[in-house]
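Hi team,

Filling in the usual template for the complex we talked about on Friday. All components are listed, including any nucleic acid strands or ligand strings, so the model treats them as one assembly.

SUBMITTER: L.P.
PURPOSE: interface mapping
COMPONENTS: two
RESIDUES: 525
SEQUENCES:
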Amino acid sequence: MDAQVASAIAVESLVKLYKGTTAVDGISFRLSPGSVTGLLGGNGAGKTTTIAMIMGLVTPTAGAVSVLGALMPKERYRVLHRMNFESPYVDMPMRLTVRQNLSVFAQLYAVPDIGERIAALAGELDLTEFLDRPTGKLSAGQKTRVSLAKALLNRPEVLLLDEPTASLDPDTADWVRGRLERYRIEHGATILLASHNMMEVERLCERVIIMKKGRIEDDDTPERLLARYGRQTLEDVFLDVARGRAHREAAQ
Amino acid sequence: MSSTTDVGMNFSLNRVSAMVRRYWYLLRSSWPRILDLIYWPTVQMLMWGFLQLYVSQQSNSFAAAGGVFIGAVLLWDILFRGQLGFSISFLEEMYAHNLGNLMMSPLRPVEFIAALMIMSIVRLSIGMVPVTMLAIAFFGFNLWSMGLALAAFFVNLILTSWSIGIFVAGLLLRNGMGAESLAWTIMFLFLPLTCVYYPVAVLPGFLQYVAWSLPPTYVFEGMRALLIDHVFRADLMVEAFIFNGVLFAAASFAFLKLLQSARVQGSLLQTGE
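RESULT (copied from the run log):
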């Protein structure tokens, strides 16, 4: 239990079966508070299912997940107000204005001084001029910033990000990464980031977990992974893992 | 630690009010949504009102039973629109792909349901109050003159509509939008069985047992007793309330089981077809 509390996120022998298909196959890892970890893997590798189990949206078949010392999903209401997430696959209600959406979520998360918090976040995320516009009328980049504002409303200690820059242009994506870096530095938050963007992972993450077919294929710092596979970029490392090339073979 | 922690944060009126605010913003942002609340109840009331008028001109016995059809259609609309108001608010989250945000927030299922119940009353009020006024203007039928009896009818009907709404919400969580049509049509199963427009005695024997197991049947029988015999049957309302207690408990239990199953099956991630 002590180790679980010391870890912001602790995943132990986690298994998820869907009607005979193994989505996650006995994975274990621990994330220390304030760390930024990238979760990599091809489509169907089990990243989204793993994140969903960490969020308490999916019940594990076996094994255990704890976040900030609370077992998920059983004890999720102890910690949900200290977590948040952002995903391009979950939308904010389109007909509500940005301010309405943010104020509803701020109230759900019991954020104090809601007006001030929204104004501050809008300033930081360059959303002030859009606050009274319907969310559905915004561009993809602006919507992503609104989702990010929602994710940061409660100053989460644990932030789960599922492809936070998917479908964004390079400039906006870079801007979002900068904001995430700043948030992590200012608040010491633990960030788990699932992404297909290797450049993003190299820039943000101090640790990378690579999944394949529901298992962890490798888990190390980006520097050590590059050295071990003898590659210049994480993308090449990712391709080596995805195509089943072993470290030494890949280096040759 | 784990024995009490699932309770975690207690029921919060603040979170309920956040959700009610969210639905209110949505409703007031869209005039077609508001029009939809009034349009069909008005059409129904006018159609049954004129039918009642015609039939009462042909038969003395129908003339004596003044307002039975209009009363029935207005009470039916409380039942039907109450459930629809609950289910549509829930469906709005699925249409908006917003369930993930809510399920990941500190909002608890019981708070979510409480907000949906409040919205069902808000939507019902917007739709039904103007229609009851039109019923007075067109046919001289004043639903409000039923007084305390109307309150008893309303409480029983809205409890049934919430029970069905809760059960449908569970089905939607577990089965995704594949269960959407149930949200729109499930209440029509109650239309013939709860004897909205005719007495229970009209049904064949075995169906009468089914009818008497459904709380709204007691309300519609009670309404006919009030309008035809001018007697308020408190016994029927008490029986309806007991059946509603059982139905509400069963629906809540089913919802929690379906939510639990949705977490196991991963359906909360896939709320599409």
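MY TAKE: Chain A has one domain: 2-220. Chain A touches chain B at residues 16, 18, 23, 48-49, 52, 55-59, 70-71, 73-78, 80-81, 83-85, 87, 89-97, 100, 103-105, 107-110, 134, 150 (CB under 8 Å).

Thanks, L.
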